[in-house]
Structure formats: structure tokens, C-alpha cells
Write a structure and sequence with these properties.
With about 400 residues, this protein is α+β, with helices and mostly antiparallel strands. The radius of gyration is 53 Å and the shape is elongated.
């Protein structure tokens, strides 16, 4: 009797066919009785048959052929004396290859044949079953294969190729002799399968406390003061930033910070409040400018506070010369805006040669009121304004 897998009972009745010729044998009778070699799942038996086709023979031998089975020659082939009839039944396998399990089917008869049919090269591999082991009757239906491979281990800044017959990342690390700390992990789960050419990285994880010093910004308080001219500021009490120490719990992986959690903080130095006096006193009216001898007054299209020549640190003539003479754009601007009076005041809040607003004056580095600044200082600030904002700052440009 020949057995097959999948709990399917395949019976080949190994029966001796004894034919007794009642009235002598005839040549026709002998011609119909043929001997064939029947091989089922690698088990061979000589069979005599009167069947005309392979399928008839298999039926007579009670061999059930199912989908997936292999019959050679085909079931419709005619029987000839001495022919080989091979039946390889389909067998279910559970193959675990390099840690990955999968269901397979094969018509092979041994473990080695099955691997060849499935395209798995057992050379140098660890196979849990003998390559010659039979697969008939459900034997060795589950087995594993671990193929040789080269896996690169990355640890502590070094890359080490490891040649190993291993199925999991942990086995590779063990083979490489790399020790893992309590908090260390791998770039993939320790039980994960590895492939030839793969990489397993050791992630060194460290958590430690770090103390950092941070500034505490001082508070700045402004206090109105009518003893100071409007627009002037004076520090009454100098302030100072404070500081605090903060303790963080910092976690790093391979030296790179991945989390930072505040644990505590302590004030080391309290900030000191800064008090600034802001002037509210109205400025004194500007004195009328005096004409220089030989200089005529300009137009009074600009700010109030006087046209004509200015008498002070610089004469009107000197101011005109500073501006580049009557052919320069600066000359035309000042002539229009203030008629060359450095202390010109316009009721709508414009001051000096170039009729600065106080906010604009401060934005270019000026302090106090432009009318209190020397003409050369006013000219310097006007040039800064022109470079920052262009000639459009003056309608007279």
C-alpha cells in the first residue's frame, strides 16, 4: 500500500493478478495484460493491469487524484507495457525562512526537493529537518531554514559587517559581541527577522539631569516728570536682569536629544526694576534768529520759529555751505523746510533744519529734541534717514 499526505488515504492494492486460462492462453489475452511501474510519492510498485489509460489504472488502484497533484504521463495517456507512471501528491507545508513563516504547497517528496522547488538554496543554511527526510503522509510538514547572510552592525560610531547564520536581530547583536545597556534598544525589534545586506543599529539611550541658567527680564517703569522737557528721558533707577537655574531631565539617543522635561527651577538673582523719567514739560519758545551780515533771509514756507539768517554755533552762511550750496538737493530741502533755521519749530510737531518728528529723530539715533542738536548733528541724522527711507521723507525734495 502506498500512502499520500493531507489525511488522504491513497491505496494501491498490490495485488498479484493470477489468470488461469480455462482453455489454454491466447495471444490476445496475454497482449492485454501489461506490467507497469507505479510510483506514488517516491514509493515504487510493479503492477499488472488490463487498463487502457493512466486514469483507468489509477482508478483500479483506488488512487484519488486531486487538484494540485502531479501525474506523469498525463491521466489520458495510454498504458504501454513497462511504462513508468509517477504520481506526486500536493502537500501542505509550513516553512519558516529566516524567521518569517509562510504556508506553502509542493509536489516534492523530500525536504530538499521542496526547498529546490520553492527556490530556497540550503547551501550553508541551517535546516531543522534532514534534506532527505520524506514529506509523505504529512511527515516533516513544518520546518525552518536559516540562510547565511552578512548583516552590518552599527554601534558606538562603528560599522561592523557580521557573517552569520541567524534569523533575528538579537542573534546578530549577540554574534557581534555588542552589549546592550538597560535602556538601549535596536533599530528594529530584537525578534525581527534580518536579511542579507541588512543593517542593525544599536541605539544608545541615556537620560541625565542638566542645569541651565536663564535670564529673568527686568521690569521697566516709565514715570512722567514735568521738570524735564517733553520728549526727554532720564534713568532715575538703573535696573538689572535677574537669573534662574532650571534643572531639565534630558534624554538622548546616540548623543542626539530627543526629549527635555523641566524638573525644577530656582531663582539665583532677583531682577531689579528700572525706573525711567519721561519729560512732559513744554519746550521754551525758540528765539528769533538773527540775520548775518551780508546774508539775506530765506522763505518762511517751512517751520515757524523764524526765517532769515541764524546766529549761533554756525552762521546761516556756514549752514548753506555745509549743505553743498544752492545747487544741492539738501540746500533746497532746508531752504523749504526751515529757511536754514536749526531751531525752527512747527506747531504740528516738526523740529529743526529738516523738520524732524521726534519719533523719526529717535529712529535715526537722535536724542532729545532736534532743535537742541548742533546743525552738523541734524544733518548727520538727515543723511541716515535718507539712506533708510529715501528722499520721499521731505515734500520739498
Amino acid at each position: 500500500m502506498i500512502s499520500a499526505l493531507r489525511n488522504r488515504k491513497v491505496q494501491i492494492a498490490g495485488q498479484a493478478v493470477v489468470i488461469t486460462a480455462l482453455v489454454g492462453g491466447t495471444a490476445a489475452f496475454v497482449g492485454l495484460n501489461k506490467q507497469v511501474n507505479l510510483v506514488v510519492d517516491g514509493q515504487s510498485e510493479q503492477v499488472r493491469t488490463f487498463s487502457g489509460s493512466v486514469s483507468d489504472l489509477l482508478d483500479s488502484q483506488e488512487i484519488e487524484v486531486e487538484a494540485g497533484d502531479q501525474v506523469q504521463p498525463g491521466a489520458d495517456a495510454s498504458i504501454t507495457r513497462g511504462m513508468d507512471i509517477v504520481v506526486n501528491t500536493s502537500k501542505d507545508l509550513q516553512l519558516t525562512l529566516d524567521g518569517v513563516s509562510s504556508a506553502q504547497s509542493t509536489t516534492a517528496n523530500t525536504v530538499g526537493q521542496a526547498l529546490a522547488e520553492l527556490g530556497v538554496d540550503p547551501e550553508g543554511a541551517e535546516v531543522s529537518a534532514d534534506l532527505k527526510a520524506s514529506l509523505a503522509d504529512g511527515q516533516n510538514s513544518e520546518f525552518s531554514v536559516i540562510t547565511p547572510k552578512t548583516v552590518t552592525v552599527v554601534a558606538d560610531g562603528e560599522r561592523t559587517p557580521v557573517e552569520i547564520t541567524a534569523a533575528t536581530a538579537q542573534e546578530v547583536i549577540d554574534e557581534a559581541g555588542v552589549e546592550l545597556g538597560e535602556a538601549d534598544t535596536l533599530s528594529l525589534p530584537a525578534s525581527a527577522p534580518v536579511l542579507d545586506g541588512g543593517v542593525v543599529e544599536v541605539l544608545r539611550t541615556k537620560t541625565e539631569d542638566k542645569t541651565e541658567t536663564e535670564a529673568i527680564a527686568k521690569k521697566v517703569t516709565e514715570k512722567k516728570d514735568d521738570s524735564l522737557e517733553r520728549g526727554k528721558r532720564e534713568v532715575e533707577q538703573k535696573g538689572k536682569d535677574g537669573s534662574k537655574e532650571i534643572v531639565y531631565s534630558v534624554t538622548t539617543v546616540n548623543g542626539e536629544e530627543i526629549s527635555k522635561e523641566k524638573k525644577s527651577e530656582e531663582v539665583v538673582a532677583e531682577p531689579v526694576e528700572e525706573i525711567v523719567k519721561v519729560g512732559t514739560k513744554a519746550p521754551a519758545p525758540a528765539p528769533a534768529p538773527k540775520e548775518d551780515e551780508g546774508e539775506s533771509g530765506g522763505s518762511d514756507d517751512g517751520g515757524s520759529g523764524g526765517g532769515g539768517n541764524y546766529s549761533g554755533d554756525m552762521s546761516t552762511a556756514e549752514i548753506k555751505e555745509m549743505l553743498g550750496g544752492s545747487g544741492s538737493r539738501w540746500y533746497k530741502i532746508v531752504e523749504c523746510e526751515s529757511t536754514f533755521n536749526p531751531r525752527a519749530v512747527n506747531p504740528n510737531g516738526h523740529y529743526g533744519l529738516f523738520q524732524f518728528k521726534l519719533a523719526t529723530w529717535r529712529s535715526v539715533g537722535g536724542s532729545g529734541n532736534p532743535i537742541d542738536a548742533h546743525p552738523t548733528e541734524q544733518f548727520k541724522r538727515a543723511k541716515i534717514l535718507q539712506e533708510k527711507a529715501g528722499w520721499g521723507q521731505w515734500s520739498c525734495a
